[in-house]
Amino acid sequence: MSLADWANFLTVFQVCLVLYKQWITADGQYRLMYWLMIAAGSLGLVSHSMMAYIATDIAIGLLSTLTLMVWSIVMGSKGLKRLDAEAKEVT
Which residues fall within 8 angstroms of residue 34, CB to CB, at 6 or more apart? Predict the structure, then answer.
């Protein structure tokens, strides 16, 4: 498989994770949702970086989306910390 094929595969996998994350969000499974936010953000970082490396003519556009991926990772981590803090308050 070429680098482009891997980047496309990771992007499709990321989309599947995000769709599943939306499903479980509606179900109220917040701990899993936050982990999926972190996983999807990480996959996005890797796949968009790979695509930017391959297609240098659109690299600026692809790399500008990395901010969204980092934000997803940060917010997922923040959500997990909040859930842990709430769990400690209950016990």
Answer: 76, 77, 79, 80, 83
